[in-house]
From TrEMBL:
Coiled coil: none annotated. The lineage of its organism: Bacteria, Pseudomonadati, Pseudomonadota, Alphaproteobacteria, Hyphomicrobiales. This is Uncharacterized protein. It comes from the Bacteria. It holds the Pfam family NAD_binding_10. SUPFAM superfamilies: NAD(P)-binding Rossmann-fold domains (SSF51735). InterPro entries: NAD(P)-bd_dom, NAD(P)-bd_dom_sf, NmrA-type_oxidoreductase.
Length: 284
């Protein structure tokens, strides 16, 4: 049996639906009954467990052959603790194979806020004795849209401290489809890198958004201090530091790499960024 954590979230929910529709024996893990209502349409059994309650995790993981582990989000210390609790509970419960969603920005030299969190989780997983598969995700196209393009549709300017860096955006739907494919196949001991098939400059990203949404948008390379000051005025902790350090990683070229693993897993290229934007455009 396959268990999907984070099933009430976007990626976890999409993985759950794909596996359920494919006829696989799959269950959903959510934090509480309120969240359970959000995944009932997938038609899969539901298990309740909390990342901060190891005993509940151990109960939820009993009888699980493959665990699709979509991590939580929030403060780095809490996420690191959640990772450790899930991996320890899975090993205790006898889970056979953990499929873990990590990040491509994993090098020790990175200053990204979440890099130490995911490095620690990967280390724990490899030392756990369980079979494992790791999917390292690039920069979400959905993040670029929601946090940088949509505000720019009103202002006309996308100001970021990333210089002339390039990124290879990956749609969350492609990530979910790849995770479902790995979970269905069950092959272990592999690290996949999930990126878009084209590395785009931010000038190209702004131009694509302008074409799709029919509004003028320009990219401006801002100063890191100016972006951080703006972020502190718009976001709650820890997100100003998280986004500022993400921009630094982007500027250092850590998200520019293009990998063909999505095509190898899905039999098709990753969704082009402009095609992704077209899907999000309101119907006219």
């Amino acid at each position: 049996m396959i268990l999907v954590t984070g099933a009430s979230g976007y990626v976890g929910g999409a993985v759950l639906r794909r596996l359920s529709q494919g006829g696989h024996a799959v269950s959903a893990m959510v934090r509480n009954l309120g969240r359970a209502a959000e995944v009932e349409d997938a038609g899969a059994p539901i298990r309740i467990a909390n990342y901060d309650e190891p005993a509940s995790l151990e109960r939820a993981f009993l009888g699980v052959d493959r665990l699709v582990f979509v991590a939580s989000d929030g403060h780095a210390r809490a996420v690191m603790r959640h990772h450790a609790n899930v991996i320890d509970a899975a090993a205790t419960a006898g889970v056979g194979h953990v499929i873990f969603m990590s990040i491509i920005d994993i090098e020790a030299s990175s200053g990204f806020y979440f890099t130490p969190v995911y490095r620690d989780a990967e280390r724990r997983l490899l030392a756990s004795g369980m079979k494992w598969t790791i999917l390292r995700c690039g920069l979400y196209a959905d993040l670029i849209l929601s946090h940088w393009i949509r505000p720019a549709l009103a202002s006309g300017e996308m100001a970021l401290p990333v210089g002339d860096a390039r990124v290879a955006p990956i749609a969350r739907d492609d990530v979910a489809e790849a995770m479902a494919a790995v979970a269905a196949e069950g092959r272990d001991g592999t690290i996949h890198e999930l990126t878009g098939s084209i590395a785009c400059s931010f000038e190209e990203i702004a131009a694509a958004a302008a074409r799709v949404f029919g509004r003028p948008i320009r990219y401006t390379a801002s100063l890191p201090a100016d972006y951080l000051a703006w972020a502190w005025g718009e976001m709650s902790d820890p997100w100003p530091h998280a986004f500022s350090s993400l921009c630094k990683s982007i500027e250092e070229g850590r998200y520019a790499r293009v990998c063909g693993d999505v095509e190898r897993l899905l039999g098709r290229p990753a969704t082009r960024f402009e095609d992704f934007l077209m899907r999000t455009r309101p119907a006219t």
